[in-house]
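Why do we care about 3D structure at all? Because function follows from shape, and shape follows, mostly, from sequence. That is the central idea of this module. The next example makes it concrete: a single protein chain, its amino acid sequence, and then its structure expressed as tokens.
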Amino acid sequence: MRIGVPKEIKVHEYRVGMVPASVREAVHHGHQVIIESGAGAGVGFGDDAYIKAGAEIGSDAAAVFAAGDMVVKVKEPQASEIPMLRENQVLFTYLHLAAEPEQTAGLVASGAIAVAYETVTDDRGGLPLLAPMSEVAGRMSVQVGAHCLEKEQGGAGILLGGVPGVPVAKVVILGGGVVGTNAARMAMGLEASVTVIDKSLARLNELDMQFGPTLNTIFATIDTVEQFVTGADLVVGAVLVPGAAAPRLVTKEMISAMQKGAVVVDVAIDQGGCFETSKPTTHADPTYLVDDVVHYCVTNMPGAVARTSARALNNATLPFILALADQGAEAALRADAHLMNGLNVCRGHVTYKAVAEDLGLDYRPAAEALG
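And the structure:
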């Protein structure tokens, strides 16, 4: 199979779909890999490294899309990339379609077979291709939140861990999954007062056993969310409904009731966000104010630490890339129910139920759409 890897063009996105080590594995399996010139520069891999790994260098994105039977990316195809897709071409990347009606329409019109990293599952009920970036985003959320709390950034001028004689910051994390767990680990490491709110008692029990009495665990109700959010210095939105739009847990009224200079970091913004006041931002202009509360809503947070993120992502995606290439997309999808769960759009049909419901589109089961 010919695998095309274009350069990411989303604002301040430096990751790359395949690092040289992944290319070498694919070539060893007998596949051709075409990398757009400069695609790996943002993570420290020049064209020479890819040539050494066995890749061909494409002059531009159009050449890479035209050459590839499968296109491997990191972020969703941008407006200029969607027209390059063709019928039956495989697209393997993050899509987050529930919040993207225009992108969804473009993919449907293309006739491509679009497999989304974020809805591929595993035997334990997890999301193995989302997990590494969720780990990064969870850890980054506290890092950027701490920065945004500085006065120069519009924050209240609070140090997360305080100093002797001065209260520590109150950090509230909505959701106790991979993002929330990593955010809690970082915030506790910085000696803040940390509360995780989740609707799963089983998960709260696991977090309590993992972190002990230093972590405050609270069952999620409208009342508890309002109580803890309005009293927080930093709130991290870490909720996830796989493939679907994130629930809006925090209302405008709650934001208005927060203290001036408080910070909210919406890690769920790829799926529409869990704060009613959230809107997507970029690394070029990451924050804005609503009622004097700093909002950080960057849709590709891990792109800021691209070298770490690209390697972590490739570790997870490579087995699936090889399966799709070795067996062919149809055979690989039919052979692996977890990979089939990643199929979001196929030959003109939306094949992920949550996406279809959120966007008001017709749904066709994945196996049926494959034909």
